[in-house]
Amino acid sequence: MFGVGGGEIVLIIFIALMLFGSDKIPDIARTLGKGMAQLKNATNDIKNEIQKSAEANGLNDLNDLNPMKQLDLTSDITKEIDKAKEDIEDMTGPIKRQL
Question: Model-level pTM greater than 0.70?
Answer without folding.
Answer: no
